[in-house]
Task: inverse folding
């Protein structure tokens, strides 16, 4: 068989890999930086009674903005072009990250983290849709896995690189060394945005019949930016307003997070009443809705580890900040193998009865077991760095492998012109887990003095996710996969 050689869609996978990389470096930086600020009692974390709760709340506020832009982001992509929204998202993220390094107080820090969430919130649904449009159907799962590998590399680079950058900056920036990673990562993000703008264009093939109005081809940057800005301004006022009045009323961090989560069903209700013909098919499809709910524990797990993994390892005897970061990084590092492997397996079983659903169920089951193994190991007082690294790596392997399987399954169940909106809805609901995870876990840690109970809660939620996967109708999945093949 003749080898295919490098194709345009391979270039698109690689460039979106870079997009995921910088997106995750920018957002994961908050966790290690806050851990450093808590440990050293610097800036607005000096003399704070409940530092992990406040640190987790900052993460939750970021994800509130991120959550609210999920469906609008997919809708913008369907209207103005996936590529335009992807590039605008990366530019927005780079600017917000740079500005975070300039702030002087807690409120300003929170504001720019929310702005980062609003900008990055439009990336996911358009990335998934752009790959699905430009990739041969039999390779969609692999393409989604390859691009998502950037998430893993970014997660690892942020977990390891941010503490290193702080250490490098301490001699010349002193207590302000926490700012330095934001300057470095923000600059890198803007450079990547320029590369995406220059090279991530659809193939110009005049001999093929191409629909220039398709969201996979068109790129209306001006309208995309206008609508992103308008929606972001409204959501920023809402999220900051909730934070401000909740603090004035003396509400707890968890209460604030719950109020933020309530924005999700309210937004869905608003979208349903204003765009019923477009929204109803995405909500009424039972299998899609089960996948939406499944992603709540997935996002909980991702950002429980992504936000607090360094602190968890450090508290259980994992050594100083850099040593703990090295151990924690093995979880994210596993995605370099897990993402493309999961995508490849997903493509192999796509047309088999129960194919993608069964693979998703097996991966979720094994992941659940490894979460409990890690929890029991550290709670029993064990802290061997090699053993912790191995458990975290194996757990991460299954966690990251299941995601492209779930994404490809969701894509199978959705018409082409609605994929952006569908992925937006999926992540809108899934981000409930991301909003709650950092703050709930942090508050439990402050109240119990240990990360043990948050680890057990993480495993229990993943077990619920397994039940949701098993409830997907194999008959409906098989019918959709065959009809789209």
Result:
């Amino acid at each position: 068989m003749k080898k295919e050689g490098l194709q345009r869609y391979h270039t698109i996978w690689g460039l979106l890999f870079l997009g995921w990389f910088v997106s995750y470096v920018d957002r994961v930086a908050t966790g290690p930086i806050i851990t450093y600020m808590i440990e050293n009692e610097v800036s607005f974390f000096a003399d704070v009674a409940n530092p992990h709760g406040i640190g987790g709340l900052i993460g939750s506020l970021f994800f509130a903005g991120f959550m609210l832009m999920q469906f609008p982001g997919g809708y913008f992509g369907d209207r103005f072009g996936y590529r335009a929204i992807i590039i605008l998202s990366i530019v927005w993220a780079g600017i917000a990250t740079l500005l975070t390094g300039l702030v002087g107080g807690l409120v300003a820090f929170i504001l720019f983290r929310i702005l980062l969430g609003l900008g990055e919130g439009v990336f996911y649904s358009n990335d998934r849709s752009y790959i699905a449009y430009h990739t041969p159907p039999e390779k969609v799962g692999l393409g989604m896995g390859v691009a998502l590998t950037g998430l893993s590399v970014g997660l690892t680079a942020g977990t390891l690189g941010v503490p290193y950058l702080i250490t490098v900056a301490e001699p010349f920036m002193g207590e302000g060394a926490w700012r330095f990673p934001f300057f470095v990562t923000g600059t890198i993000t803007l450079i990547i945005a320029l590369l995406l703008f220059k090279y991530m264009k659809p193939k110009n093939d005049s001999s093929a019949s191409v629909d220039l109005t398709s969201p996979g081809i068109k790129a209306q940057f001006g309208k995309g930016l206008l609508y992103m800005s308008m929606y972001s301004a409204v959501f920023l006022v809402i999220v900051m307003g909730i934070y401000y009045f909740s603090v004035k009323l003396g509400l707890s961090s968890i209460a604030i997070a719950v109020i933020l989560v309530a924005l999700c069903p309210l937004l869905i209700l608003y979208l349903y009443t204003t765009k019923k013909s477009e929204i109803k098919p995405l909500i009424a499809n039972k299998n899609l809705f089960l996948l939406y709910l499944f992603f709540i524990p997935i996002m909980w797990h991702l950002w429980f580890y992504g936000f607090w993994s360094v602190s968890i390892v450090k508290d259980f005897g994992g050594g100083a900040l850099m040593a703990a970061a090295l151990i924690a990084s093995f979880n994210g590092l596993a995605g370099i193998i897990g993402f493309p492997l999961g995508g490849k397996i997903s493509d192999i079983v796509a047309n088999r009865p129960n194919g993608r659903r069964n693979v998703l169920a097996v991966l979720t089951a094994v992941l659940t077991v490894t979460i409990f193994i890690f929890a029991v190991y550290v709670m029993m007082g064990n802290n061997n760095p090699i053993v912790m690294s191995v458990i975290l790596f194996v757990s991460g392997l299954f966690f990251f492998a299941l995601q492209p399987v779930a994404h490809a399954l969701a894509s199978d169940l959705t018409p082409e012109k609605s994929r952006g909106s569908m992925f937006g809805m999926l992540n809108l609901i899934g981000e409930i887990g991301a909003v709650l995870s950092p703050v709930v876990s942090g508050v439990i840690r402050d109240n119990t003095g240990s990360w043990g109970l948050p680890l057990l809660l993480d495993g229990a939620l993943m077990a619920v996710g397994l039940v949701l996967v098993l409830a997907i109708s194999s008959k409906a999945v098989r019918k959709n996969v065959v009809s789209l093949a």
Remarks:
- Residues 125 and 423 are 5 Å apart (CA to CA).
- The radius of gyration is 21 Å.
- The chain is about 80% helix and 0% strand.
